[in-house]
Specification:
The chain is built from 18 helices and 26 strands. By secondary structure, it is of the alpha/beta class. The chain folds into three domains: 241 residues, Glutamine Phosphoribosylpyrophosphate, subunit 1, domain 1; 200 residues, Rossmann fold (3-Layer(aba) Sandwich); 148 residues, Rossmann fold (3-Layer(aba) Sandwich). Helix 14 packs parallel to helix 18 and helix 16 runs parallel beside helix 18. It is globular and about 80 Å long. Bound molecules: fructose -6-phosphate (F6R). Fructose -6-phosphate (F6R) binds next to helix 9 and helix 16. Fructose -6-phosphate binds next to helix 9 and helix 16.
Length: 610
């Protein structure tokens, strides 16, 4: 949520900043802006809209500067217009900042500053911080002290970059709650909200910790606590390449990521499926094996799509390992004083590893003494670092705002976890082998679904003008229904609801008429007959049935207006396959309606505010 980047070195900085903002744009795209130091003065350009609009402003300027900061915004305080766009400055326009996060006490600080005669141009919380830093600088005449003092007065979260013409040789960076990565190359540094904007220049990075500040000049950097104690930085090597950040011939990142799923699933499985032994090896959990043996209850916490995968995880773990599981929205968990026992294990699931609510839930569970683990995609992210141990899903960078490959990889990891836990309890080696063998077949089965994309596209074309959709499934397929509905609404803006199929008759059935497409995930499992009855109930009210069904199921032909087959697999593995046609259908409907697939309105990839 909001992307920030700063550069100091010997390159022409406006190009570096614009390229960086393009990489970060998936984090927010309401407005973009930059500040560079040109001939000793702060030069600021900012514009509502996408980075492209900012780039147009710059095109005819001949800048020589090699130091600057920039921002792409997901609006929180104040509408997305030119004035509210970052950077913001102090009242003398000598100090500029870009900020990701929220200054919670901005209003009271603003009132105090206004009482002293300071004035404001924007409605943002960030400008209050800029003016506060400026006010303190007037007294102490030292930028670092001014930044540290101001930050000790604010509450909330920040990933912050500061540039000033008072001290033109440095960028100051600070972090609390919002991520910051410092890229280190020869005589140049790039500081950014995430590594995607850095990898082009270097793979050597330092992840700033919470409440850490970095003072970065042309040839060195120092990191400190907010209390001025120097800290030791560990340099990490990024496991990322530029190709992973390009569309590689696909029209959209979302489509590329859907098509990557056979490979990303294989990456999630690599080295972890011990077929001969009938078990699973999850190296990242080695240190907590004993805790798993004695665990009384698992709590899975997450947001959005990751929360849907947690629901599948609940079914899997209770089924295979017979351990009670609770699934919690991270945003609720953190505020409701949850009861947590010392022998509980809390698992946070997050693609980005930066979701503010999930991170706060992790901290809440840690404070209450639980063992806290992560199932995370982004290596080195805040959640990955805040948890006691964890499992990376290895899906690679997910750039499309709608999560696709991360979801299926999360399901793969949760299945492996459930098998591992089952083997610690009553799951036999024979039964486990059967599941593991089938798990290994899933990537090839998923490929077969992708080969059917044209058929799904035709269905999307036929129904794209509908105003509402219902998605229904039972058992393992209920979370898939939720995920299908979420995919559709976020990228096409069509209203869609996911429901357990049997719940339909308790209310949503009132919505059904000849204009309502109802997507049933109706694969053959032990409750197949029941779902056929639910389909009948919809047909009786003239609803249009789109069924996701098991290949070679002839019966379903009598029930569905449209049919999408998926290969046969174990019911517990069905969600990994059944979600794929729903991803494709949402994608093609969005394209058909002319929506911005990769950057849907009002959304951002990494939700780092509450
Ligand atoms: C939906 C989507 C969001 C995220 C949610 C959590 O397509 O992407 O619902 O799943 O914001 O994000 P992570 O998994 O990064 O914690």
């Amino acid at each position: 949520m909001c992307g920030i980047i700063g550069y100091i070195g010997n390159r022409q900085v406006s190009n570096v900043l614009i390229n960086g903002l393009k990489r970060l744009e998936y984090r927010g795209y309401d407005s973009a802006g930059l500040c560079i130091l040109e001939n000793g003065n702060l030069e600021i350009l900012k514009k509502a809209g996408k980075v492209y609009e900012l780039e147009k402003l710059i095109n005819h300027q001949q800048y020589t500067s090699t130091i600057g900061i920039a921002h792409t915004r997901w609006a929180t305080h104040g509408e997305p217009n030119d004035i509210n766009a970052h950077p913001h400055t102090d009242c003398n326009s000598k100090i500029a900042i870009v900020h990701n996060g929220i200054i919670e006490n901005y209003f009271s600080i603003k009132k105090q500053l206004q009482a002293k005669g300071f004035t404001f141009k924007s409605e943002t919380d960030t400008e209050v911080l800029a003016v506060l830093i400026g006010a303190i600088y007037e007294k102490c005449q030292n930028l670092e002290i001014a930044v540290r003092t101001a930050l000790s007065e604010v509450t909330g979260t920040f990933g912050l970059l500061v540039l000033s013409s008072y001290e033109p040789d440095k960028i100051i960076a600070a972090r609390r709650g919002s991520p910051l990565v410092l890229g280190i190359s020869k005589n140049e540094f790039i500081i950014s909200s995430d590594a995607t904007a850095i990898i082009q220049y270097t793979s050597q990075v330092v992840y700033l910790s919470d409440n850490e500040i970095a003072i970065v000049t042309n040839n060195q950097f120092t990191t400190k606590t907010m209390n001025n104690q120097e800290t030791k930085s560990i340099i990490h090597k990024l496991d990322l390449n530029l190709e992973q950040l390009e569309k590689n011939g696909f029209e959209h990142f979302m489509l590329k990521e859907i098509y990557e799923q056979p490979n990303t699933l294989n990456d999630a499985f690599r080295g972890r499926l011990l077929v001969d032994e009938g078990t699973i090896k999850l190296g990242g959990l080695r240190s907590v094996y004993d805790k798993f043996r004695n665990v009384r209850r698992l709590i899975l916490t997450a947001c959005g799509t990751s929360w849907h995968s947690a629901l599948v995880g609940e079914y899997l773990i209770e089924h295979l390992a017979q351990i009670p599981v609770e699934v919690e929205y991270a945003s609720e968990f953190r505020y409701r004083n949850p009861i947590i026992y010392p022998d509980d294990i809390v698992i946070a699931i997050s693609q980005s590893g930066e979701t503010a609510d999930t991170l706060a839930a992790v901290n809440e569970a840690k404070n209450k003494g639980a063992t806290v683990l992560g199932i995370v995609n982004v290596v080195g992210s805040s959640i990955a670092r805040a948890t006691d141990a964890g499992i990376y899903i290895h899906a690679g960078p997910e750039i499309g705002v709608a999560s696709t490959k991360a979801f299926t990889s999360q399901l793969a990891v949760l299945t492996m976890l459930a098998i591992m836990l089952g083997r610690m309890r009553n799951l036999s080696a024979i039964e486990a082998k059967k599941i593991i063998n089938e798990l290994a077949n899933i990537p090839d089965k998923l490929k077969k679904i992708l080969e059917n994309a044209e058929h799904i596209k035709a269905i999307a074309k036929k129904y794209c003008k509908s105003s509402n959709f219902l998605y229904l499934g039972r058992g393992y397929n209920f979370p898939v229904a939720l995920e299908g509905a979420l995919k559709l609404k976020e990228i096409s803006y069509i209203h869609a609801e996911g429901y357990p199929a049997a719940e339909m008759k308790h209310g949503p059935i009132a919505l059904i008429d000849e204009n309502m497409p109802v997507v049933f995930i109706a694969t053959q499992d032990e409750i197949y007959e029941k779902i056929l009855s639910n389909i009948e109930e919809v047909r009786a009210r003239k609803g249009k049935v789109i069924a996701i069904a098991t290949e070679e199921d002839e019966v379903i032909k009598n029930y569905a207006n449209e049919l999408i087959y998926i290969p046969k697999t174990l019911p517990m593995l069905t969600p990994i396959l059944a979600v794929v046609p729903l991803q494709l259908m949402a994608y093609y409907i969005s394209v058909e309606l002319g929506c911005n697939v990769d950057q849907p309105r009002n959304l951002a990839k990494s939700v780092t505010v509450e």
